[in-house]
Amino acid sequence: ERSSQKVSMAVVRRLPKYYRYLEDLLHKEIYRISSKELSKIMGLTASQIRQDLNCFGGFGQQGYGYNVEELHKEIGKILGLTKRYKTVIVGAGNIGQAIANYSHFEQKGFELKGIFDINPKLIGLKIRDVEIYDVDYLEDFVKENNIEIGVICVPREKAQETAEKLVAGGVRGIWNFAPHDIKIPENIVLENVHLSESLYTLTYLLNEKLQEGTDNLENIELD
Ligand code: NAI
After folding, report:
1. Residue 132 Cα, ligand 1 centroid: separation in angstroms?
2. Does the structure's ipTM exceed the value 0.90?
3. CATH top-level class for 85-196?
4. Residue bearing the bigger pLDDT, 105 or 165
5. What are the residue ranges of CATH 3.40.50.720 in the chain?
6. Residue 30 CB contacts under 8 Å (≥ 6 apart), including other chains
7. Which ligand 1 atom is at minimum distance from the Cα of 98?
8. What is the CATH number that goes with domain 2-78?
């Protein structure tokens, strides 16, 4: 029944957050939680949570709450995390290397098949057993290995041409770290990551707090 109706983007954006908190609960060996408790730790209202999870047929039971394991599994399924995704990273600089080194993505099903760069000093090196190849081979490699996701970590002025190579090779999704508005065909999914936006939100909030002063700290509700 879920596939017949489109889930709103706002809910989709919250799903990874549910997934993360539920995973955390599982690590703490908490197997059952009420929507009230879940709302407290996640900073959402209980009704918001019930509403969100109702979009997927609702997993809670009156008087019992949510079965954490089941909910985690279901949301993982909804997020597509039960599949495996063949992935490449383009740009083996600071960000590209950091992502390649982060083995958690591998455990979640993102199989890093190759890393690509233009710098001859990097080509041939390996990061966690994954080779850095010459970017000249990118399109063919994507084709031959049925790569589904491309991660863009090149300088911003190279982002568009990199995206075009990935699309020509046949990727279905692009995870873009370059601060550039990439244009790609509509059937390709694009997700941009802007660390700077998060950082500037921090500075905004920091300065707002400074203006408020420290005298009303006791007004912060911790309930
Ligand atoms: P970096 O200079 O360390 O790495 C870029 C790498 O791309 C280099 O190894 C370079 O040889 C390679 N490269 C250049 N042209 C290429 C091409 N045509 N094909 C393949 N490889 C190529 O840069 P860094 O710090 O890793 O940043 C990478 C990108 O991420 C930049 O666009 C930067 O603006 C962006 N960035 C994004 C952030 C975010 O929040 N999303 C935060 C910081 C940086």
Report:
1. 14
2. yes
3. alpha beta
4. 165
5. 85-196
6. 68
7. 26
8. 1.10.10.10
